[in-house]
Specification:
The chain has about 200 residues and is mainly alpha-helical. The protein has 7 helices and 4 strands; from the N terminus they run αααααββαββα. Helix 2 packs antiparallel against helix 3, helix 4 packs across helix 5 and helix 5 packs across helix 6.
């Protein structure tokens, strides 16, 4: 079983949802929390290819040199994570987005936008953050969350995994739009085994 951002499954299908999924379970029980330090957040961003090596090293150094600032940046990222979670959970429930959560995500994304610079690389031009401040990690994920809100077709809804002790969010890419599990191999197979056992008992 995974117990950190280094070995958790990335099955959200989008960085913003993978951030929301850094709590191992939100159904049945809550936790454990995989985001226990700013370093955990950096590890996640690295696995999602959101930051390059130099930026990673720079932020890591800053966090080590200023633990209170790293703690504040982590707290901000956790608040953002919960806002993103509630936002997309409401989509699965067919409810309107909670306005306070929407505003928090918007606020962090807007802050990030003001820091972005246009840079060229092999693939062409793109907006990027300078990554010279720890607060930019939350801004980065907020920008991703807004991208997810804006760029997704109606058909690709965000769903909540109904596995017991899960509750992870994922984008439903299935044809019928009825996918139930964050991962067929874990939550899906647990549910199948449970159904199979209850059928045996019934016979
Ligand atoms: Zn699941």
């Amino acid at each position: 079983m995974a117990n950190s951002t280094a070995d958790m499954r990335l099955s959200g299908g989008h960085p913003a949802l993978d951030l929301a999924n850094t709590v191992d379970s939100r159904r049945g029980r809550w936790g454990p929390d995989f985001l226990r330090s700013f370093e955990d957040l950096l590890v996640l961003a690295d696995r999602l290819d959101l930051v390059d090596r130099q930026a990673l090293a720079r932020l890591r150094r800053q966090a080590e040199n200023d633990p209170p600032k790293a703690g504040a940046a982590l707290a901000d990222a956790l608040a953002l994570r919960e806002a993103i979670y509630r936002l997309f959970l409401s989509e699965d429930a067919g409810k309107p987005y909670p306005i306070a959560d929407l505003r928090l995500v918007e606020d962090r994304a807007r802050l990030g936008r003001t820091h972005q610079a246009l840079v060229a690389d092999a693939a062409g031009y793109r907006w990027t953050l300078p990554f010279d401040d720890l607060g930019e990690m939350a801004q980065l994920f907020a920008i991703k969350a807004v991208d997810l809100l804006i760029e997704r077709g109606r058909r690709r809804a965000v769903r909540e995994c109904k596995g017991s002790n899960c509750g992870w969010l994922f984008i439903d890419h299935s044809k019928g739009g009825r996918r139930m599990w964050c991962s067929d191999a874990s939550c899906g197979s647990h549910a199948r085994i449970k159904r199979f056992r209850s059928r045996l008992k019934g016979n």
